[in-house]
Amino acid sequence: MTYGLPAARGPFHDLALQVGGLVAFSARALVAAPRAAVRGRLPLREAVEQTAFLARVCSGPALLLMLPIGVLIAVSVGSLAARLGAGGYSGAVTAFVVVGQAAALVCALMLAGVGGSAICADLGSRTIREEIEALETMGIDVIERLVLPRIIAAVVVSVMLCALVTLAGVLTCLLYQVYVQHQSSGAFLATFAQYGRLSDFTTAMIKAAAFGLTSALIASFKGLHAKGGPSGVADAVNETVVLAFVVVFVVNTVLSQLYSVIVPAPGAYA
C-alpha cells in the first residue's frame, strides 16, 4: 500500500479527502493493533524506545506549563474565595479544575504540540527519503512496524504525564494557599478530599489516553502522507499541531459532557 491522497479539485475537496483519509487510516490502525498483539508481532522494543523518547521531550515542558497554571488557579481561587468569605473551599475548586480539566488538557497540549510534531517529523522524513516505500516493497507492514509503537508510546506517556501533572498542580495550589494566602492546609485538604472524586481522576486518565491516541493517529497520518521534500514535512508538522489541537479539544468536550451525564456532580439531583 502506497500512502497518498488523490489530487484535490479545491479546498473543500481537499478537506473531504483529508478527513476521509484520516478516518480510514485510524480505523486500519485500530484494527491492526489487536491483530498484531494476538499474532505476537507488536514491536515492543520500538514501543519502549518511543515511550522513553516521548517521556523525555514532554515531561519537562508539561511540568513547566502546569506550575504557572496551578499558581494562576490558586491566585484566582484565593481572590474569589476571599471575597466570598469561603477561603476554606479552595481545595474543592482545585479538585474540580486541576484534576477534572487542567491536567488532562496540559497533557493534550504536550502530546499534540511536542509529541505529535516529533512523530510527524520522524515519519515525514522517512517518507520523503522513500524509506516507507522500501519497507512496503520488502513486505513489511508499516502500520505494525512504525505506527503502532508510536500509538502505544503516546497513550502510555499521556496517562503517566497526566498523573504527574495532576500531582504537580495540586501541590502548587496547596503550597500557594498555605504560604502565600496563609490559609489552613487542613481546610484545603479536607475540601479537596470531600469534593474530589476518584471518578474525576479516572476520567482524567481516560481523557489523557484518548488525547494521546488522537494525537498519535493524526501525526502518523500526516507524516506518512508528507510530500514535497523538507518543506512538505514542515507543512505536515504545522498541520499536525493545528489539527491535533482542534480534535483533542473536541474530544475533551464530548468526554466531559458524557461524564457529566453519567456521573452527576456532588449534591446534584440524580
Describe the fold and architecture.
- The chain is mainly alpha-helical.
- The chain has one domain.
- Helix content is 84%, strand content 0%.
- It has helices at residues 11-39, 44-84, 90-128, 131-137, 142-179, 185-195, 198-224, 229-262.
- The longest helix has 41 residues, at 44-84.
- 39% of the residues are buried.
List the total number of helices: 8
**Number of E-state strands:** 0
Secondary-structure-derived class: mainly alpha
| C-alpha geometry | elongated
The share of residues in extended strands comes to under 5%
Helical content, roughly? over 70%
- Biggest sheet statistics: none
Order of helices and strands: HHHHHHHH
**How many angstroms separate the termini?**
51 Å
Q: What's the mean pLDDT score?
A: 82
Please state the CA-atom Rg, rounded to the nearest Å.
Answer: 21 Å
**Poorly predicted regions:** none
* Total separate domains: 1
Keywords: Membrane, Transmembrane, Transmembrane helix
Transmembrane segments: 15-33, 53-75, 95-121, 151-179, 201-221, 241-262
InterPro entries: Permease_MalE
Protein name: ABC transporter permease
Concise structural overview:
This protein is mostly helical and 270 residues long. The chain contains eight helices and no strands. It has one domain.
Main attributes?
84% helix; mainly alpha; 8 helices; 270 residues
Helices, strands, pairings?
Blueprint: H1 11-39, H2 44-84, H3 90-128, H4 131-137, H5 142-179, H6 185-195, H7 198-224, H8 229-262
Organism: Tomitella fengzijianii
Keywords: Membrane, Transmembrane, Transmembrane helix
Transmembrane segments: 15-33, 53-75, 95-121, 151-179, 201-221, 241-262
